[in-house]
Amino acid sequence: MRQFPNDFLWGVATSAFQIEGATHADGRGESIWDRFAATPGKISDGSDGKVACDHYHRWREDVALMRWLGVKSYRFSVAWPRVIPTGRGAVNAAGLDFYSRLVDGLLEAGIEPFVTLYHWDMPQVLQDLGGWPNRDTASAFVEYADVMSRKLGDRVSRWITHNEPWCISFLGYCNGEHAPGHKNWGEMLATAHHLLLSHGQAVPVIRANVKNASVGITLNLSPAEPASPSAEDAEACRRHDGSFNRWYLDPLYGRGYPTDVVEDYVKDGHLASSTLPFVRDGDMETIAVPTDFLGINYYSRAIMRSDRIPESKNAPRTVHPEPERTDMDWEVYAPALTRLLQHLHTHYQPGPLYITENGCAYATGPSEDGKVHDEKRVAYLRSHLEASLEAIHQGVPLAGYFAWSLMDNFEWAFGYQKRFGMVYVDYDSQRRIPKDSAHLYKALVEKNGLDVELAA
Ligand code: GBH
């Protein structure tokens, strides 16, 4: 039986900055990603988000594409600077109305909106006041969550507070690859805390404004597996899992920050002592607020090999040295998804799980027949849906799957060179062409199962 549960939520995902464009339209304020993209050297192809997929103007066409795909749900994010251009205070009605119209259009098409509040595009004004390392930003986020859930709460029941706190904290404030491009361990740890805190504070606010609210958070989880059976590689896995996964999961599920990682950070000089300076009384209880689901973004596993200890380099590799890799250089490895889902379910009991992103970058464009034959994405999609179904068979309450992404879009520091879409975007004409993977997805969704052939 290769069928999914009857109520399985098939969807596609995008985020505001990556698709909308129209960065100056209708009173939108500046975001940290506008500023970052305008800084020479930050985006590898020198591009920016000014036009992107022009979704702000073409959203009706994009909703029609989703209707054609047959998806039941659409996960999109709201651009905070469209709604509250200066981060706090005055609400921009024109920006708010855009999302209200989009929601109406989705509902008319029979597609359930799944809203992410924060997918990285913070109002620049808030960054000028210190950004996420400043605790006040958490309060500003809660006000914004209140505005959005009041406006859309009569029509939208599903809400995600934050997308990938690890990326926001680490890439934004520690290695500087993402906006605002800072490199500071202290800022990173404070950011992670204030993101989690603002999540905990926003959940009851959203619930109060929304009928039948279903509220959660999305984490990017990276299961660590050792390159060899050596003790050193096992230690590298512990550290990776600790800083990447447990630092977020443990506080959300009431366990506090993992003490082994706190000790690592003290030893490495990233923390002055094991008392975390940004944690106030009651914070950990706030963060551990019960939620309705956990969203997971899965792309690949991380194979850990200790680079410090020579013995480890000589230990025999237990993993394939030359796996299939996507254009991001990420290994294609679906079995780790099943293991991850199983582990989350048994270890944290988060309730229903949704895969809120899964996908791959391949540059495949139109061939002579005018079609886009992205057979590697077709294979990726199939193998990861197999892995998802396997988890369901093992008893994991996986309730939905959102392919990343509906269409090619602005891939952050890589600009438009990496294409994650099931729909091809010609950035000169803004023409959308469903790739073979989109045709496959349409068939899978219709069948609610995996026994589907792709017509040639
Ligand atoms: C997501 O982030 C974002 O939410 C989305 O906006 C973005 O477009 C999409 O993914 C594609 O990048 O250990 O081999 O998995 C992805 C975050 C964090 C995923 C780092 C890969 C490390 C490589 N990524 N992670 S691997």
Account of the 3D structure:
This is Beta-glucosidase. Pfam families: Glyco_hydro_1. It is an enzyme of class 3 (hydrolase). The protein is of the alpha/beta class and 456 residues long. The protein has a single domain (9-447), classed as Alpha-Beta Barrel (TIM Barrel). The protein has 16 helices and twelve strands. The chain has an eight-stranded parallel β-barrel with strand order 1-2-3-4-5-7-9-10, surrounded by seven helices. Helix 15 links the parallel strand 9 and strand 10 (398-404). Helix 7 (136-152) runs parallel beside helix 9 (185-209), helix 8 (165-173) runs antiparallel to helix 9 (185-209) and helix 14 (335-348) packs parallel to helix 15 (375-393). The longest helix is centred in the middle third of the chain and has 25 residues, at 185-209. The site of ligand GBH has 16 residues, from loops.
Spell out the blueprint of helices and strands.
Layout: E1 9-13, H1 16-19, H2 32-37, H3 55-69, E2 73-77, H4 80-83, H5 93-108, E3 112-118, H6 124-128, H7 136-152, E4 158-163, H8 165-173, H9 185-209, E5 214-220, E6 224-226, H10 231-252, H11 259-267, H12 283-287, E7 293-298, E8 302-304, H13 310-314, H14 335-348, E9 353-358, H15 375-393, E10 398-404, E11 423-426, E12 431-434, H16 436-447
Parallel strand pairs: 1-2, 1-10, 2-3, 3-4, 4-5, 5-7, 6-8, 7-9, 9-10
Antiparallel strand pairs: 11-12
Helix pairs in contact: 3-5, 7-9, 8-9, 14-15, 15-16
Ligand GBH is lined by residues 15, 18, 163-164, 167, 220, 222, 297, 299-300, 302, 330, 357, 404, 411, 420.
